[in-house]
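Note to self: keep these together.
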Amino acid sequence: MDFFDVLRKRRSVRAFSGKPIEREKSAKLLEAINSAPSAGNLQAFRVAKVRKKETRKKIARAAFGQSFAAEAPLVLVFLACPGESAKRYGARGEKLYSVQDATIAASYAQLSATALGLSTVWIGAFNGEEIKKALGAGEELTPVAVIPVGYAAESPGKAPRKELDEIIIEE
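Structure:
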C-alpha cells in the first residue's frame, strides 16, 4: 500500500473481530516498531506484546473500562525507559526523549498495522500503575500508550480535521 494511502486509511477502531493476526503480519509489525527512530538511537522504550486474554482484560480495566482493548487479539503497550535516556541526556532525556521514543514507536506500529490490513486505536487514558501491575513491569518503566491491534469489526468514517492554517505556523 502506498504510504499516503496508509495515512488516508488509518482509523481509530474500537470494535475488533475474533480473527487472529497471522504470524507473518505480527512479525512485520514488530520489525516496523524496531525500525522507529529514537534519540541518540538509544531505543529508550519497551513494548509489551500482550496476547493473553486475562492480561488484556486487566489492561482494559486499567484503561478506565475501555473494554474493546480486551477484544483485540493483540495489545501493544509502549513503555518509556526514562533512566536509559537520562544516562546520556539528563533531565531532558528522562522527561521528554524517552517518551518521544515510545511515542514514535507506537506511531510506527499504528501505520504499519494499517499497511498490513489491520486496525488499531491509540489509548492514552489509563492508570499507569495499574498497567505496570498487569504487565509485571518494573518501576523504571513509564507506560505511554496502549494500542489494541486486530481486524476491524466496524468501519468508522473519517474524523474531521482542522484546516491547515489552524495548525501550521509560518515564519
